[in-house]
Amino acid sequence: MDATPEILGELSLFEGLSPERLVVLAERCRISSVNKGEHVFRAGDPGNGLYAVVSGLVRIYRGSPGGKEQVLHFIEPGEPFGEVAVFQGDAFPADAQAMVPSQVLFMSRRDFLDLARQDPEITLQMLARLSLRLRRFVHQVAELSLKEVPARLAAYLLKELEEQGSNPLTLPMSKGQLASFLGTIQETLSRSLKRLEGQGLIVVKGREIGVLDLSALQSVAEQGR
Amino acid sequence: MDATPEILGELSLFEGLSPERLVVLAERCRISSVNKGEHVFRAGDPGNGLYAVVSGLVRIYRGSPGGKEQVLHFIEPGEPFGEVAVFQGDAFPADAQAMVPSQVLFMSRRDFLDLARQDPEITLQMLARLSLRLRRFVHQVAELSLKEVPARLAAYLLKELEEQGSNPLTLPMSKGQLASFLGTIQETLSRSLKRLEGQGLIVVKGREIGVLDLSALQSVAEQGR
DNA sequence: AAAAAGCTATGACCTAGGTCAAGTTTGCGG
DNA sequence: CCGCAAACTTGACCTAGGTCATAGCTTTTT
């Protein structure tokens, strides 16, 4: 399916582009639907362009021979993914899979580089975007090796609370997926939630989590090691 | 101390720039000496520009309240560091410390952005550079959470063997520092080395490590979980 | 070369958290 | 509204690897 200028305008990637430019770009982008569980690309696939989530939710992850998986990020509507392969190395470093029925936009490397040439602002925006991602990875690596599961969980809940702004926050994914993002497994996550609940810091009801004691949760999150 | 065009020409960051351009840039860059153990910047410091190692060795790491540290990368001569703060967020996300007496070059954000504007090629090179770093982090996150220490160690040795090209390879840092890079501690690294040695895969003599059984080492490195 | 300071090895011990195995609950397709 | 498949919880168990303590070794300083 073809993209429309309206859809493109919603993507953070194209923020600030003129309506005329969007019309031209719309012709060059393709939108496709992917079913729940379907892969947009696999690690090692040649990357001929970049993607963005139009609707739905996509997870980027790496698997291991033993079957365990580590989620690197969840991509929400408006956000691009798979950019790394456009600028370096050409093979995707991880798998991308739709977690719910989703629509994804594709733009070829050629078209993106053309756009970048005509609109250098885009390049700077991309640098800022990759820098942000780098910053997040720095955080993720440090958390994985320096903190224990309850601390990582607490930090996640605080971040989510901040972003959602509403107090009983809602997990945007299954607990198993969250565990995989936090570098652990379902069982351990379940026990950690229980523990925080037992300490009176949170209250859990399905995917809804209410934060009862903000400052105590913060001190759990800071526990390093 | 002022930078010279010759020094700048050696930096991967300025690869491909004309000699005239290098002369102009040399006036804008400052080179300073840092002692072993001295910090170039600390996490949270405002980032007003980027750095590159001219000589010596710099490590980028994050500490935890409990005193443990996770090394994110070792920066060798010619390589830039601290770029992330130039494009995003303005505070450095980690600490940078000289591991041996070193010389580092500094270029202000302003000067770098001026250069980027005049020479768009630099921007694309920077995109490629950040993409490579992102790719490495993807790898590091996955290794930390999916593999055990001996597997991470084996993977490191294979990479180092490849890069150095000589068989008894030489560790470029202390074993304690290597442990911190691999997300573990001295003692565990020591035992892992011993184990690989006991299995006849490597032979260790101080910082020199000879690889005896390449394919066995590869299969240890691939063990996921 | 002696002394101080950092590195490395190794042993005894302990715990966070992964594995395996039942259940139980939730939510979706028919 | 039913039934089946995920998703989730809970318990018993086990192990990788972190902690603590000690001692040998190597390098730099004086």
Written account of the structure:
The structure is a homodimer of 225-residue chains. With 225 residues, chain A is an alpha+beta fold. The longest helix of chain A is centred in the middle third of the chain and has 27 residues, at 120-146. Chain A folds into 2 domains: 5-144, Sandwich (Jelly Rolls); 147-222, Orthogonal Bundle (Arc Repressor Mutant, subunit A). In chain A, 45% of the residues lie in helices and 23% in strands. The first copy, chain A, is elongated. Chain A has a 4-stranded antiparallel β-sheet with strand order 1-8-3-6. A 4-stranded antiparallel β-sheet of chain A has the order 2-7-4-5. Chain A has helices at 5-9, 19-28, 84-87, 109-118, 120-146, 149-164, 175-181, 186-198, 214-222, and strands at residues 30-34, 39-41, 49-55, 58-63, 69-75, 80-81, 95-98, 102-108, 169-170, 202-205, 208-211. The structure holds a DNA duplex (30 and 30 nucleotides).
Q: Major sheet of chain A, described briefly?
A: 4 strands, antiparallel
Please give the most extensive interface between any two protein chains, plus how many residues each contributes: A-B, 45 and 46 residues
CA-based shape of chain A: elongated
- Specify the CATH architecture of the largest domain in chain A: Sandwich
Helix content of chain A: 40-55%
**Count of distinct strands of chain A:** 11
What separation lies between the terminal Cα atoms of chain A? Answer: 51 Å
Name the descriptors.
elongated; four-stranded antiparallel beta sheet; 2 domains; 225 residues; DNA-binding; alpha+beta; Jelly Rolls; Arc Repressor Mutant, subunit A; homodimer
